[in-house]
Amino acid sequence: MQRVDIEQGSYEWHCMRQGLVTGTTLKSALGTPKVQETLTYKVISERMTEPQIEDINSAAVSRGNELEPIARRVVAIETGINFIETGMLVSDSILGFGFSPDAIVEEGGKVIGGLEIKCPGSKKHIEYLMGGILPKEYADQVKAPFLMSDDIEFWYFASYDDRNYEKPLFLLRLTRSSFPDIEADREKLKKFISTANEKHANLTF
């Protein structure tokens, strides 16, 4: 696993993500053949074109960007962990796979853990608090680091709502045992990327 210290959201960051399976597209890479087909078009198109950066300025996205540093500090206080910011983690063993963590934890020069932060609406935050489990819609994003490296020991999922004055933080610690299908999913991901590579090569050679 390679740690790439680059500013998330920068042009260079967008260029680096071009044509990769990322944390946000992992679910599709592991999905049904039809869903995989759609992602294949996206991956190949990104490899063959300049980055097409979408400027998303919705209120929810802006609020999430503003709150993320605050949420990271709150989680650090809650856990006593020194979280580090970085731009991307790129796989050495699964070429074409990388993702952008909200924070990582290093030990002995290796990334052993990290953090996924969400800043949802207040109603959704209550849903997460009452459910007490990793939300299904973010399961693959949290699974991504475990697929990438066997060095990963844990990953936190955090939901933060500063408007909730009683319970602003929902925090869940996930370990490798939280995802029993790691090896099967790893092989499925490798197969998807290999198929995308083959289809790309057929177009260009």
Distance between the termini: 30 Å
Percent helix range: 40-55%
Question: How many individual β-strands?
Answer: 7
- Spatial ordering of strands, largest sheet: 4-5-6-7
Mean pLDDT: 94
Question: Could you describe the 3D structure shown?
Answer:
- The chain has 7 helices and 7 strands, in the order βααααββββααββα.
- The strands form 2 sheets. It has a 4-stranded mixed sheet. Strands 1-2-3 form a 3-stranded antiparallel sheet, with helices on one face.
- The longest helix has 23 residues.
- The mean pLDDT is 94.
Give a brief rundown of this model:
By secondary structure, the chain is an alpha+beta fold.
Kindly list the characteristics that best describe this protein.
single chain; 3-stranded antiparallel beta sheet; Lambda Exonuclease, Chain A; alpha+beta; 44% helix; 7 strands
Topology (elements, then pairings):
Layout (H helix, E strand, L loop, with lengths): L1 E3 L6 H7 L8 H4 L3 H16 L10 H21 L8 E3 L7 E2 L3 E5 L2 E9 L3 H10 L7 H10 L5 E7 L8 E7 L6 H23 L1
Parallel strand pairs: 5-6
Antiparallel strand pairs: 1-2, 2-3, 4-5, 6-7
